[in-house]
Amino acid sequence: METRTVMQREQEEQSSQMSHSMQLSSQIKKKTFTSSDEEASYSDFYPIIPADLMSVKEILNMDNFPRHRTWDILKETLAADEEYIREKWTMFGNEAEKFELGVIRSQHVLRTRVDRLALRRQAEKKASAHMKYLERLSHKAPDFPIPLRAHTVWEGMMVKLSCIVQGCPPPKVTWYKDGLPLRMSDQPWNYSLQQKFGLNTLEIRRCSPDDAGEYKVVAKSPLGEAMTFGTLVVNSYQGAVAGSEHSQTRARVQEEAQFGITFPTTWVKEGDILTLQCTFTSALLSSQQDVSWFRDGIQLHQSSNVDINTVDNKASITLRAAHKEYEGVYTARLRTYDEIQEHSAFVYVQDASAAVLGGPASPLAVQVSDINKDYVFLTWQPPSADGSSPVQGYYVERYEVGQGDWVRCNVHIQKMCYYPVFGLKEGTQYQFRVRAVNKAGAGRPSKATEPVLTGDPLEHTRTMVVKVDRGRKITITKDELEGQVKAPLPPTDVHACEVSDTYVVLSWTEPEPRGREPLTFYVERSFAGKSSWELASLDTVVNSPRFPVFDLVKGKQYCFRVRSINKYGVSDPSEPSQPISLGKPLAVPAPPHSALAFRDTDTSVLLQWQEPKEKDDILGYYLYYSESGKQDWKTVNNKPITQTRFTVHGLKTGREYVFRVKSVSRAGNSNYSDESQPILVKSAIHVPSAPSAIALLLCTGSEMVLGWRAPAYNGGDPARGYYLDQREKGMETWREVNVKPAKERQYKVCSLTSGNFYQFRVFAANMAGVGKPSEASEAFLCEKWTMPEPGCPYDVEVREVRNGSLVLLWAAPLYEGRSPVTGYLLEISQGDKSEDWTALTENPICDTHYKVSGLEAGQTYRLRVSAVNEAGVGCASLPTEPVTAQTQPGTENIKIGVDDDGFIFLGYEANEINDESKFLWGKNYTEPIDAARARAETKENRSLLTFTDPSEKDLGLYTVEMSDNPNLSSSYDFTAEDLERLKELSWQVRNPLIALKSGWQVEVSETGAVRLWLQTESLSNNAELRLIFNDREISSTPHRKINFDKAKGLVEILFDPLSPEDQGSYTAQLRDGRAKNQFTLVFVDQKFRQTLALADKNRRDQQRKCGPYFQEFLSWSVNEDCELIIKCKVTNTNKDTSLKWFKEGNVVTQAVYDQTSGVCTLTISQVTKKEAGSYRAVVSDGRGEDVSTLELLDDEYDKLLQQLSKQCALSASPLRIQSTAEGVMIYCSLKYYISYLKSSWYYGERRIDQEARMKPGSSMEKVWIEICNPTENDKGKYTLEMFDGKQTHKRYLELSGQALAEALLEHQRLKQAAIAEKNRGKVTKGLPDVVAIMEGKSLCLTCFIDGEPAPEIFWLRNDKEIVDQNKFTVTKEPKCSTITIHNVSVEDSGKYSIFVRNKYGSETVDVTVSVYKYGEKPPANAVDMS
Fold it and tell me: Given a cut of 60, is residue 1276 above it in pLDDT?
């Protein structure tokens, strides 16, 4: 029943709604689908028939319905499909009509809901803004109207600590105990914290002494901070009271970390890895692990280029590739219990090496904006360094992520720092970068942008998400609602969104409705006032409502219009834009002015400047510096600075610098500003730090004498005085002690009350002002001192700290006690705070200074001193500050020497000095320097203590220290040995000798001129020279010229020519100020005669060289082929010059003359005795003649043979084996062998002479030894020694094993072959080659035969045996055979042969018989037998 009732109610509601919609008025506010947050598009009111009763077609057919072009196009589109729609209506009939009505009804309901949601959002927005306004009116900083109060409870009781906090917005409340955050998790059973309506309550259920202490509540909000305190005292039943003092004395279980070693100002090259690291005093607590890093106030997070690490007590950040965009102030932030600590330092990113020599640096800060489907807009900042020439413009490059290489976007250089990139692919990721260009070429690329995705930036506006009941959502797109739109509408609002002096970027609004099909656009242009339109986009497909136009003419105005295109067609053109023309070129900004530099630190300077008047387009500033007077300008920053002041780091202490500034804009960099005034880099003066270690030195009952330690940091100016405050113990108010500053670190305070306790504090003052006060001293009792022991020494200071040693100084106590002070005891403690004191000396020392040695280098120590008298040891002084036994870099020691005037001095050089620094000299640490015996003089950073007349009175320990930095100190013990050594050196300085570099030298030139010269050290222009020759002073004459070069210290005498009258002694007397010396040359006897002869020879040679002459005289050499080469070389020849060779007066024609090089060579391939003799070469022409002679006789010929023997021996091959019929031959091959080369053979260590079995021998090309009838006993080592007259050359052969066996086998074979050759049948003599005989005569041919056994004999005619006994008669004897041819005829002509043989072999000898007739002549080559 209930279900039916509900359904009936829903039906009634629907019918009621339908009837209500039919009664709607025809005059209602029109709402389109997108009008929920907009005004009506076309008119304020439209007559509308209820949408749930009419179709779209009926609406379009209404005559009185106001028409917009959109509806006309829709109507035309529907008319085109009218036939199809009519068939559709016929097919579906009433059901289709009902469905359409349902859709329209749903649209109407949806519009109503959307309008309601829009109104609701507007109302909520206004309500939220009003609430925020009320909140701002009610904002209030945190405050405690009811603070915490102190409580005292018994141990074991419960206590509640309460306070009320107010503030808007509500502040965050934190509880602390004794300065540490209160952790509820430590004792959850005992602590309970409640916060309700501003009331904050801490309940401690069961108090213990550990709960006692000071409790603090801190309230923080963006408007400020407030805090309140309360003390909890817990009384113990054992009689003790536990209070805040007890709690405060408890040590923390775990110390929180603080900054320890931090990163300094850093320089890194572009593209390199940058790592910054902080080291903390201890391991980070769990609450401190989140160390944050910032750059210019923006927090950095872990990324692909940023690596942040926090491990133990270190935190670091690493940039894998440093870019200019990363330059700035880097900050590490550490959270502690009470505050947030920060450390900051500037990181400079320097330019990387130029891509081309003289090329510009890389631009920076490339930004992408106005991202569309095929268009983006880029901006960037110019580089600080132009390179060798000014930057002319920029190239823009793009990279399609994941594909291809970098592609240049612009053909022509873009001068401004912005550029529209067109023609991109839709839905593609791109990266962009920029290169600067100057005359040298394109520089390094900038850092690439992050990948950007091209797409429609208005895509989100075409989609709407509507929330309906029960959390459901309906997503509606305009494409779904505009499905019936086919032919596109024209765009609207065509205008220029970017205007440059080289291009214009057009922008327009897409048509509404756009339709479902993708749109592209045509851009047309026309001169302003003209009606002729041309296509501006040409073949370019324009996908987004942005289009850059580059080819415009300056000074002309253009109008533009756009058409929409889809697959159905092209729209009408849009309304023309307003006239558009190219803009004026952006001018570079004006340079800044009034650059001022101020002192900051030892390595930095604060630079300020004034910005130019026109500053709207300025992006920042680039800074440059140079040492004064050098004009060597260097860039400070590579990322523009937006402020007008900057601290320049990395400067050198004591150098003077000037600075200048450039303005930076999109149009480029300005000119340089005027240079700042030069500034010397040194620390600015600050007030000194607080003094420390206040000690009571003496008390008389109404007066106290106080001493204290100087400030650790004087602020760059020495402390000029001290001020004291005093107060009685327990009082809060301090009272001034002295109005005038105390000059010393000791002061007597008067008018005190005996028996009272007093506390004191001290202020130090310098030129910058008064510094902070010291910590309050302990409470001193004002009571007259009467103890027998002495008081404490004071002014305990450390000097001359070195590796393993230091010097301790102190002042005697003001109170001596019952008796005078007899000595001092020294104690030392290792470590910063250790109280484990060890005596340094076994016995007291009398001086008030002591050198402590034997320390461990790098270790930290503290020292103190106690005075001793007869009554005992007094109280110890205050310990020194911790000092590390380590030599600091740049530490100098006192050096002793003698100056240019011969005075003995002590010198000391300080590496750190300023205008107020003074060198303080002393003797034995206490005595002043006697001005009558020594004077101190300072030049720049060096001080000299010069002794007037040093003697034994001046011996002792001398010390020096800097007035503003006692850590710079040194000492020197001036001993008697030093005095003796330096007095000798002083005499040499005061009586100097001119140092000699080179004594008298004699030189003869090629022309025969003679030069005598000597050289000393460089002399001044006032130097004088006297030349003495044989006891009389000489000067320059025509044949003797004297030169004196003072700068080089050169004295020379030139003789041209040298004559016998010039023989004698020459003395040069030199004087230069106090320095003098003299040098003598004895130029007589053989030395003079040799020089004179050489001069004459050179003079003759000079005359000889007027015509052709021998540049190289005849000489011989032996080459590697053991050939004798005799050659010479002539020069200064011409075409008429002849060169002839002679030997013993006979002309030698074998010499080869090369006229080009002038070399003439005679080569003798084999030297014999006939080559010995006198060789002579003559070169001559019309200008003269020159002769060269070579005597190849006697010793020279022996020398030739020795050299030839050596070369022959060097050409010897290794020993080889050759078997013969007689035995085995060991031989060595040479180029050729001469008898001068003595050869010897050795078997083992035994020399082989001529023997029966072993026979040495030689030929022109071989040396050998033959072993006859060899056996196995002949194996061993054989050595050939060849002596060439100077050296012995050896060759070795080991005759054994396989080599010996093969040699013996070959010997046997050859031996048998020799026997066979000896015994074989053979013809020894007899037959000529050709014989001739006249016809009719008889011919007798005889041959002699040999062989054993006797050979067989056969006669042949034409290779056939002769058997005719009538015609031929043959006789055969053992050693002879004859054939006779009777009555020869022409037919008997032919070849006749004798053939002999036995068992060892055979031989055939041929003869040709020629028969001629009577009257004929026999053949010319035949033997006539007629």
Answer: yes
Pick from 110, 124, 130, 200: nearest CA to 163? 200
Q: Cα Rg for the chain, rounded, in angstroms? A: 61
Least confident of 165-179, 404-418, 1093-1107: 1093-1107
User: Which of 103-107, 387-391, 661-665, 954-958 is predicted least confidently?
Assistant: 103-107
Measured on CA atoms in the order 1011, 1017, 1022, 1023, is the torsion positive or negative? negative
Average pLDDT over residues 870-879: 91
Residues 6+ apart with CB under 8 A from 461: none
The angle at the Cα of 710, spanning 705 to 714, to the nearest 5 degrees, equals: 145
What backbone torsions phi and psi does residue 922 show, to the nearest 5 degrees?
-155, 170
Q: What is the pLDDT of residue 1347?
A: 87
- Assigned token pair, 224: 């400020």
- Find out whether 226 and 165 touch, Cβ atoms under 8 Å: yes
Burial of 1119 (0-12, 13-18, 19+ CB in 10 A): exposed
- For 108, the enclosing helix (H) or strand (E) is helix 94-138
Distance CA 937, CA 355 (A): 54
Q: Are strands 463-467 and 429-438 parallel, antiparallel or unpaired?
A: unpaired
Cis peptide upstream of residue 513 (ω within 30 degrees of 0): yes
Nearest of 297, 1099, 972 to residue 643 by alpha carbon: 297
CA pair distance 688, 763, nearest whole angstrom: 9
What pLDDT is recorded for position 97?
62
267 and 305 in contact (C-beta within 8 Å)?
no
Q: What's the predicted TM-score (pTM) here?
A: 0.51
Residue 722: closest CA among 707, 705, 737, 742: 742
Contacts of 459 (CB under 8 A, 6+ apart): none
What values do phi and psi take at 1304, rounded to 5?
Answer: -65, -40
Distance CA 437, CA 395 (A): 7
Contact 1036, 1054 (CB under 8 A): no
3-state secondary structure 1068-1109: EEEEECCEEEEEEEEECHHHHHHHHHHHHHHHHHHHHCCCCE
Tokens of 340: 């947030």
- Tens of pLDDT, residue by residue over 1291-1322, are 998 888 888 888 888 888 888 888 888 888 88
Residue pointed to by tokens 């010929």: 1197
Q: How far apart are the first and last CA of the chain?
A: 175
Please give the Cα distance from 945 to 858 (Å, whole number): 32
Burial class (CB in 10 A: 0-12, 13-18, 19+), 460: exposed
Per cent of the chain over pLDDT 70 is: 90
Tell me the CB-side half-sphere exposure of residue 468, using CA atoms within 13 A.
10
Our measurement of the distance from residue 171's CA atom to the centroid of its chain's CA atoms, rounded to an integer in Å, reads 53
Give the 3-state secondary structure of residue 109. Answer: helix
What number of CA atoms fall less than 13 Å from residue 1033's CA on the CB side?
A: 3
Cβ neighbours of residue 672 under 8 Å, at least 6 residues apart? 591, 624, 660, 661, 662
Comparing 99-113, 338-352, 981-995, the range with the smallest average pLDDT is 99-113
Beta bridge partners of 422: 375
Long-range contacts, stretch 534-541, CB < 8 angstroms, 24+ apart: 536/560, 540/422, 540/423, 541/374
Distance CA 982, CA 575 (A): 104
Helix axes 82-92, 69-80, angle to 10 degrees: 70
pLDDT, tens digit (0-9, with 9 covering 90-100), for 568-591: 888 899 999 999 999 888 889 999
pLDDT for residue 1194: 87
**What amino acid is encoded at 1329 in this protein?**
D
Q: What pLDDT digit, counting tens, does each position of 1223-1247 carry?
A: 889 899 988 888 888 888 998 888 8
